[in-house]
Design a protein that fits this description.
Elements lengths: L1 E5 L4 H12 L3 E6 L15 E3 L5 H10 L4 E4 L6 H6 L1 H22 L3 E7 L26 H20 L2 E7 L1 E3 L14 H10 L5 E3 L11 E6 H17 L4 E6 L4 E3 H12 L6 E3 L8 E2 L4 H7 L7 H15 L7
Parallel strand pairs: 1-2, 1-4, 2-3, 4-5, 5-6, 6-10, 7-9, 8-12, 9-13
Antiparallel strand pairs: 9-11
Helix pairs in contact: 1-7, 2-4, 4-5, 6-8, 8-10
Pathway: Carbohydrate metabolism; galactose metabolism
EC number: 5.1.3.2
Organism: Streptomyces resistomycificus
């Protein structure tokens, strides 16, 4: 099989490419390089530079590389930006997916793995300790980004039912860490790099609200190491290959909650900084607790996360130091 990885030069995409190639799968990357970095890719993995809105280029790529499966990660993914630019997000994430699926079905490609998000759940009513978000939890996205991911799931599922395309939609929770420093996330959009940035600036990290109904009053989230996430893609790809006609929707998380305060304390301890956080008002729309049930992924894929939060912080910090050597202490 040859797998086309759209968005394969991005942070998550490059890890998926590495995991797929290490598992013995042939891969080709399709990326517009708007945020991706070509240097992240192994030298023997072909790169086609193009947009998912370019149906002709997609069709040529599928044919030229004899693609037999697609892992679709290419998307715009910043929640705040999506609020300001909803038309842009719907065009890139939904129309781009439609164009890609059209090319895929016309080419007779049998398997399709879709990068979804826990953002489809919005603010689930799971504030109590022990409550987990399952795939049956009602979806009520609170941003255009989350809406595009839910609409993408609908489109993928409908296409599969109409054409026989085997599909899997993977709902990522909070992705962190790196397989190696050169593959680390260079963006500052998630909690761990946001804390790193504040510490590098010799400023206190921020906690947005400490009066939530959680054990320490701060929001609780499920964090998944990007290496585990990449391996979940390998497992999903092989599950579709082994059983044509499947239609999977799966949470990809650890099933363990970590509070914002616990994460900041862990980062302080590992980095050698000792900057107590400052508490600011809540951000609108932040749910108190969102922790995945990953039981279905284990049952359907035989997959389970192996890395803990310490691994995530350590590997992310090594990548941060590579990009910001001035942050190193001692």
């Amino acid at each position: 099989m040859t797998w086309l990885i759209t968005g394969g030069a991005g942070y998550i995409g490059a890890h998926v490419v590495r995991a797929m190639t290490e598992a013995g799968e042939r891969t080709v990357v399709y990326d517009d390089l708007s945020t991706g970095v070509a240097e992240r890719l192994p030298e023997d993995v072909p790169l086609v530079v193009g947009s998912t809105l370019d149906g002709e280029r997609l069709a040529r790529t599928l044919a030229d590389h004899e693609v037999t499966g697609v892992v679709h990660l290419a998307a715009k993914k910043q929640v705040g930006e999506s609020v300001d630019l909803p038309l842009h997000y719907y065009r890139q994430n939904v129309e781009g997916l439609r164009v890609l699926l059209e090319a895929v079905t016309e080419a007779g490609v049998p398997s399709f793995v879709f990068s979804s998000s826990a953002a489809v759940y919005g603010m689930p009513d799971t504030a109590l300790v022990g409550d987990l978000v399952t795939e049956q939890t009602p979806c009520a996205p609170m941003s255009p980004y989350g809406e595009t991911k839910l609409a993408g799931e609908w489109l993928v599922r409908a296409t599969g039912r109409a054409t026989g395309l085997s599909t899997a939609s993977l709902r990522y929770f909070n992705v962190a860490g790196a397989a190696s420093p050169d593959l680390a996330d260079a963006g500052v959009f998630n909690l761990i790099p946001m804390v790193f940035e504040k510490l590098t600036e010799n400023a206190p990290p921020r906690i947005f609200g400490d009066d939530y109904p959680t054990p320490d009053g701060t929001c609780v989230r499920d964090y998944i190491h990007v290496v585990d996430l990449a391996e979940a893609h390998v497992a999903a790809a092989r599950a579709l290959q082994a059983a044509p006609g499947r239609d999977l929707t799966l949470n990809i998380g650890r099933g363990e909650g970590v509070s914002v305060r616990e994460m900041i304390d862990g980062i302080n301890a590992l980095t050698g900084y000792d900057r107590p956080p400052t508490v600011t008002p809540r951000r609108p729309g932040d749910p108190a607790r969102v922790v995945a049930s990953a039981d279905r992924a284990a049952a359907e894929l035989g997959w389970k996360a192996k890395h803990d939060v310490q691994d995530m912080i350590t590997s992310a910090w090594e990548g941060w130091i590579r990009l910001h050597p001035e942050a190193a202490r001692g």
